[in-house]
UniProtKB/TrEMBL annotation:
Cofactor(s) annotated in UniProt: NAD(+)
Stretches assigned to the S-adenosyl-L-homocysteine hydrolase NAD binding domain: 307-400
Stated family: Belongs to the adenosylhomocysteinase family.
Positions of transmembrane segments: none
InterPro entries attached to this UniProt entry: Adenosylhomocyst_ase-like_sf, Adenosylhomocysteinase-like, Ado_hCys_hydrolase_NAD-bd, NAD(P)-bd_dom_sf, S-Ado-L-homoCys_hydrolase_CS
GO terms, biological process: one-carbon metabolic process; S-adenosylmethionine cycle
Protein name, as recorded: S-adenosyl-L-homocysteine hydrolase NAD binding domain-containing protein
The keyword NAD appears for this protein: yes
One of the record's GO cellular component terms: cytosol
Keywords (A to Z) from UniProt: NAD, One-carbon metabolism
Amino acid sequence: MRPLLLQELLALPATSEAPLLLCFEGCGWASCSNGQEAEAGLAVSLANQQLVQPGPLQQIQFADDMQEFTKFPTKTGRRSLSRSISQSSTDSYSSAASYTDSSDDEVSPREKQQTNSKGSSNFCVKNIKQAEFGRREIEIAEQDMSALISLRKRAQGEKPLAGAKIVGCTHITAQTAVLIETLCALGAQCRWSACNIYSTQNEVAAALAEAGVAVFAWKGESEDDFWWCIDRCVNVDGWQANMILDDGGDLTHWVYKKYPNIFKKIRGIVEESVTGVHRLYQLSKAGKLCVPAMNVNDSVTKQKFDNLYCCRESILDGLKRTTDVMFGGKQVVVCGYGEVGKGCCAALKALGAIVYVTEIDPICALQACMDGFRVVKLSEVIRQVDVVITCTGRDGGGAG
Ligand SMILES: NC(=O)c1ccc[n+]([C@@H]2O[C@H](COP(=O)([O-])OP(=O)(O)OC[C@H]3O[C@@H](n4cnc5c(N)ncnc54)[C@H](O)[C@@H]3O)[C@@H](O)[C@H]2O)c1
């Protein structure tokens, strides 16, 4: 099978009947800033659950397999990004994360003076007043995160992470809040920013800030905000990080490029995403990775649970929230039948969608066949499908 995916899609002329494109790849600035524009299709980022409104030009997100540590985002990246943050897309976000106070929507959190109930202003979030609602979401998340909660119970007396100064950059959601607060309970000092400009649950960020975590994040950050938040976590008088917890590699990249002295003193990096891991391998190959790094993406719990089962759940949530249409009978092509692809296909099949799969790996292609999916070339179905979902990862030659 030829590894031709989005290139074929991009070559299509603009048409009102163009399929909806759902891109599952990556999560950080890297994937946003490398976005290319297509003249056909409707782009949806699942991690963000944002719908980019139809128009003559739509944005498609690409994995950043070509991204190098030596490069910073370009102006072009900024342009594509700003187009993707439409008012309507922020309005349409209707999850638990939708608790917003429209009266202060216009004011950038960077312009606001906010303090938590203890008088600290060591944070920058959308609205600290949302903290109580965020706390309730965190408490619900805790009920499903028994491993972290039992770790807290077992070890918070000993403070095994005392001395750890962790700078983190992940999605800021109720679940990651449970992680951050566990690290704090075990003795770490944490400063946190968001790895994705859309996915921050503002009320959760507020709850973290109220609890004393130095969090710098809000939903709908600009490119400048994104790097500003990261910088506020790293560049602090009298405090120097000695560990990095990253999802996508942007924070690592920032510290490596801007603060080489801090980077040299880092004791360890934990990287969550396939994209960030790839960038670390590049750095290592170039002999520039002077810090031990842990590849979380390759852990069995990430691959076999997060990538498979979490995407199996979130695909439908993302599609429903952004389109609000029925998927029974819809024709969908899923590009890539890895862990994410398998989860997406299973969920869509269960809804009654007609699912096609493209694959370049013969074993995965055979697995798709054995699971009852039609394995095709994208060019065979691209004109008839309603939805295109890409989950090819970095091996997709920039396609996914
Ligand atoms: N949005 C999310 O919540 C989320 C969660 C996990 C992973 N991801 C992203 O999803 C992507 C896929 O992750 P995964 O764990 O399934 O990776 P994977 O390596 O298990 O699967 C990718 C599959 O795509 C196939 N492939 C590669 N190039 C192709 C091409 N040109 N045409 C057709 N098939 C091709 C590969 O053979 C492989 O089977 C990654 O970019 C990852 O970062 C997103």
